[in-house]
Automatic annotation (TrEMBL), chain A:
Keywords: DNA-binding, Phosphoprotein. The modification 4-aspartylphosphate is found at D57. Gene3D superfamilies: 3.40.50.2300, LytTr DNA-binding domain. InterPro entries: CheY-like_superfamily (IPR011006), LytTR_DNA-bd_dom (IPR007492), Sig_transdc_resp-reg_receiver (IPR001789), WalR-like (IPR039420). This is Two component transcriptional regulator, LytTR family. GO terms for biological process: regulation of DNA-templated transcription. The keyword DNA-binding applies. GO terms for cellular component: cytosol; protein-DNA complex.
From TrEMBL, chain B:
Keywords: Coiled coil, Kinase, Membrane, Transferase, Transmembrane, Transmembrane helix. SUPFAM superfamilies: ATPase domain of HSP90 chaperone/DNA topoisomerase II/histidine kinase (SSF55874). Residues 461-539 form the Signal transduction histidine kinase internal region domain. This is Histidine kinase. InterPro entries: Bact_2-comp_sensor_kinase (IPR050640), HATPase_C_sf (IPR036890), Sig_transdc_His_kin_internal (IPR010559), TPR-like_helical_dom_sf (IPR011990). One of its GO terms (molecular function) is phosphorelay sensor kinase activity. GO terms for cellular component: membrane. The chain crosses the membrane at residues 398-418. Residues 434-468 form a coiled coil. It comes from the Bacteria.
Length: 246, 664
């Protein structure tokens, strides 16, 4: 399938760089149909061309990429944000499970991002994901979007009991025995689910400290769902300190 | 010469520890003082008994509520602890004595207290206070005709004036000797003669042969007298010191040195040192002999002497690191002269060790003395305060009597006076308490402020670097380079890359500097602006007008964030229809040392820029930090400030930022 693609980027040279890279990485997959530098232009362009794929810069000449998303009516496209360095925005992308690329764009990362899109088999960005983006930009987001093969799950953060990783998958154990498996590494969530509420007690475990039932000096934590989670040696000290102070 | 310097120091402190025995004028001496003095006399032979006897005397004085005797006992105890090198107890008793004596009108008690305090101050290296106290003691003892104590304090004063005031050294040494002769006590005479001998020896430094002979003759006479009265002299170290001083005179005297006299003096001194376990005397005797033979080239004798000295040192429970270092230093020199480098190295190891310990010790000692000085001064201030309060209370008492008289004239009047008096007390106390609390609070605040200021500055410095190399700017620049490469515009990529490298280097360097010249600042700004021009496809022009001297110095990295703002938020959003213009102007205001920097752009203006960015997640960290820095500077220089305003539409839109930067 050929994706009809637009690039929203206010710097001429960065826009050129991305198009050349796309040409190099996926000449059979991507067809660039338009560019925009300014937020208002971008809104018009997207609504007019109804693209399948949008690369969106955050800082635009008039307004931001977020403004554009608010104003468009056509929303059936894959979205990839591009950013040079916006910690706050990157955190929000992680919470709302929106794809993003860091500038200067790495060819391999670009390729992987396109492969993820292909895997979605024509299922576009969910409306609720965009809605989540706004709340994710708040200082302490209360919800997290977990993308799976079947759907975009929006879960309340205070209902996450623990996360367990196996390879590049992460299993979320929620209250009432619910389980969601996403194909993202635990590291991705460790960066946004932060202490003191969350704590990475083990290479494979991130727990919500509000759901701790008990813990022993030997290094076993019992969670409210009955699971016993080991505390690794390197994290022991920091964990006990957190328990004592928190 | 190490040994000699050390000897003088020891000489001073030992001489200060001389005791008072024998013929003291009988009148005015109580039984208690007498027994304290007897106890004091035992401090060399049996320090335990010495202190016990003195404490008993002190209890007796306390029981009899005789403040004068109590002060004297405390002074003796202070001097005993001085001899035992117990600084804490020494300090405690000297101060007790001083306080007790203050509560009496007794001159003798006051004199003793001043003597003890003077010795304390001298011990902790507070020369000027020591002189104040000792001169007070000396004056009082003179009035009391206590000649033995006049002699003792006089000699001490003479030492304190050395080496600053030759005239006074002589005056007090001579006076001390005269008083000592009058008291007839051999102990005192020897002590005073050593003081006189001290200035006679010092005079020989000029090389005058007549004066040298006079000094030698004087010491010989001193030694003769001391040997004759040996039995009556308790402080044997003074005899040893006399021998050593004479030996030093021979060594520094006309060449060739009278070797035989020199050596015989030191043999005597060494014998005295060994017999009475006077470490200082013994070590000085050995050290001087070793030095002598070393100079003479008789290395074996010298080596044996130094080794004996070290062995003696090592056998003692108390190690004198200063001397051990000195002896090993001498052995080192000896080995070097013999070109025996293996031995040199073998001696160097202990030398370094003891030298370090010596250094640590002396540092510690200095700190201890400084502590003691501070504590002692603090107490003195408190005493003065108490005295003043006492004084006030006495006054108030008088006031009370006056009121009592008025009382007879009318009950109402009395009541009112009483009421006001109470009010007065209450108010005074309240005010005092308030003042004290205020003072404490102010101190705390000041301390806190300084610390906070420092912390603030430090964290600012740290964040400064982060902000100037704004990650957004860095990655954007790298993205641009990537674009140029992908577009195969190699020449541009290379030029951009080297400009970027130069800017990075400058910012790194400047972030570590306190100040840079205006010339450097302008070069950095140009570098930065040109990078931005390349990035934004030359969509704007710039001018830098400098009407100030380019050599003046200013804090680094202050201006760039405002230029960045002007470009990113003013010029970059401009549409192609309008060409951007950035102007930076520098003016010097020499009357208040201010550099005025005006950054003008014809961009979209403040209001528009704010409107557009209402929900933008990115905010300019560097401008925020620069604001903080200016605020910090504001504390130092009230003229530094920052002004941001919009250009009137008539002048074609845009923003004007004016920075008032203190010139360093």
């Amino acid at each position: 399938m050929m994706y009809r693609t637009v690039i929203i980027e206010d710097e001429y040279r960065l826009r050129e760089a991305l198009s050349i890279l796309l040409e190099m990485v996926a000449p059979q997959q991507v067809q660039i149909v338009g560019y925009a530098e300014r937020a208002d232009e971008a809104v018009k362009l997207i609504d007019r061309l109804k693209p399948d794929l949008v690369f969106m810069d955050i800082m635009l000449k008039e307004g931001t990429g977020f403004d554009v998303l608010h104003q468009i009516t056509h929303k059936a496209f894959h979205l990839i944000f591009t950013t040079a360095y916006e910690e706050h925005a990157i955190r929000a992308f992680k919470f709302s499970a929106i794809d993003y690329l860091l500038k200067p764009v790495d060819a391999e990362e670009l390729k992987t991002a396109l492969e993820r899109i292909t895997a979605l088999q024509g299922r576009f960005l969910a409306e609720k994901q965009l809605n989540e983006l706004d709340s994710s930009l708040e200082k302490t987001p209360r919800r997290l979007v977990l993308p799976t093969q079947e759907a975009m799950h929006v879960v309340k953060i205070d209902q996450i009991i623990r996360c367990e990783t196996s390879g590049s998958y992460t299993t979320f154990h929620l209250t009432q025995g619910k389980k969601i498996i996403v194909s993202k590494p635990l590291k991705n969530y460790e960066d946004i689910l932060l202490p003191p509420e969350f704590f990475r007690i083990h290479q494979s475990h991130l727990i919500n400290t509000n759901y701790i039932n008990s813990y022993s000096r030997e290094g076993l934590v019992q969670m409210e769902d009955g699971a016993e989670v080991p505390v690794s040696r390197v994290n022991k000290e920091a964990f006990f300190k957190l328990m004592k102070d928190g | 010469m190490i040994v000699r310097g050390r000897l003088k120091k020891y000489g001073g402190s030992i001489l200060l520890c001389i005791l008072i025995v024998g013929i003291v004028r009988a009148q005015g001496i109580s039984a208690v003082e007498k027994s304290a003095r007897e106890g004091y006399a035992k401090r060399f032979t049996d320090s335990t008994a010495s202190i016990r006897i003195q404490l008993e005397a002190l209890h007796l004085a306390e029981e009899k509520k005789n403040k004068a005797d109590q002060a004297i006992c405390e002074a003796y105890l202070a001097m005993t602890h001085r001899r035992l090198l117990h600084l804490k107890e020494f300090t405690r008793y000297a101060e007790l004595s001083h306080m007790t004596a203050d509560a009496t009108a007794d001159k003798r008690a006051k004199a003793f207290a001043a003597w003890a305090m003077g010795s304390l101050k001298s011990y902790i290296d507070d020369k000027s206070k020591a002189l104040d106290y000792l001169l007070e003691a000396y004056g009082l003892f003179t009035q009391l005709e206590a000649y033995d104590l006049c002699a003792k304090t006089g000699a001490d004063i003479s030492y304190l004036f050395s080496p600053g005031s030759e005239e006074k050294v002589k005056k007090y040494a001579d006076a001390a000797l005269a008083y000592a002769m009058q008291s007839g006590d051999p102990e005192n005479i020897l002590h005073a003669r050593l003081a006189v001998g001290g200035y006679l020896s010092d005079r020989t430094a000029s090389g005058d042969r007549g004066q040298w002979q006079e000094a030698v003759a004087f010491f010989k006479e001193t030694i003769d007298l001391a040997e004759k009265q040996n039995a009556k002299i308790i402080s044997k170290s003074n005899i040893g010191i006399a021998y050593i001083n004479l030996a030093v005179l021979y060594l520094n005297g006309p060449k060739p040195t009278d070797e035989q006299s020199f050596l015989s003096c030191l043999e005597k001194a060494s014998a005295i040192g060994q017999r009475y376990e006077l470490r200082n005397v013994y070590r000085s005797a050995i050290g001087l002999r070793g030095q002598f033979f070393l100079e003479k080239g008789e290395y074996r004798i010298a080596e044996n002497l130094f080794k004996t000295g070290i062995a003696y040192q090592q056998a003692l429970p108390y190690k004198d690191n200063y001397l051990l270092a000195a002896f090993y230093g001498c052995l080192k020199e000896l080995a070097a002269r013999e070109k025996d480098y293996a031995a040199y190295h073998a001696y160097d190891v202990p030398f370094v060790r003891y030298n370090q310990m010596k250094y640590d010790e002396s540092t510690q000692q200095m700190l201890q003395n400084a502590d003691a000085r501070f504590e002692s001064d603090k107490k003195a201030t408190r005493i003065t305060q108490l005295e003043q309060e006492n004084h006030l209370q006495k006054k108030n008492k008088l006031l009370g009597y006056g009121i009592a008289a008025v009382l007879l004239t009318g009950l109402v009047f009395m009541y009112r006076s009483y009421y006001y008096r109470q009010r007065y007390y209450q108010n005074r106390e309240d005010i005092l308490r308030q003042q004290q609390a205020n003072n404490e609070l102010r101190m705390q605040l000041m301390e806190k402020e300084t610390l906070e200021n420092l912390a603030e500055k430090l964290s600012l410095e740290r964040r400064l670097l982060q902000s100037q190399m704004d990650p957004h700017f860095i990655f954007n620049a790298l993205g641009n380079i990537q674009g140029m490469i992908l577009q195969q515009d190699t020449a541009l990529a290379v030029s951009y890359l080297s400009k970027f490298a130069r800017l990075s280097r400058r910012v790194l360097e400047h972030s570590r500097m306190e100040k840079i010249t205006l010339e450097e600042e302008i070069a950095t700004l140009k570098n930065y602006i040109e990078l931005q021009q390349l990035r934004l496809n030359k969509s704007f022009d710039y001018h830098i007008n400098c009407e100030a001297s380019v050599d003046l110095q200013l804090p680094p990295l202050l201006i760039q964030p405002f230029v960045e703002n002007a470009i990113e938020h003013g010029l970059k959003p401009l549409t192609d229809a309008k060409r951007g213009l950035l102007t930076i102007r520098f003016n010097e205001r020499s009357d208040d040392h201010i550099l005025v920097c005006t950054i003008t752009d014809n961009g979209i203006g403040l209001t528009e820029s704010r409107r557009r960015k209402t929900d933008a997640p990115h905010q300019s960290l560097s401008t925020k930090i620069t604001d903080e820095r200016l605020l910090l500077m504001l504390k130092d220089n009230p003229h530094s400030r920052l002004e941001v305003r919009e250009q009137p539409a008539a002048d074609g839109q845009g923003t004007i930022v004016t920075l008032y930067i203190p010139i360093i």
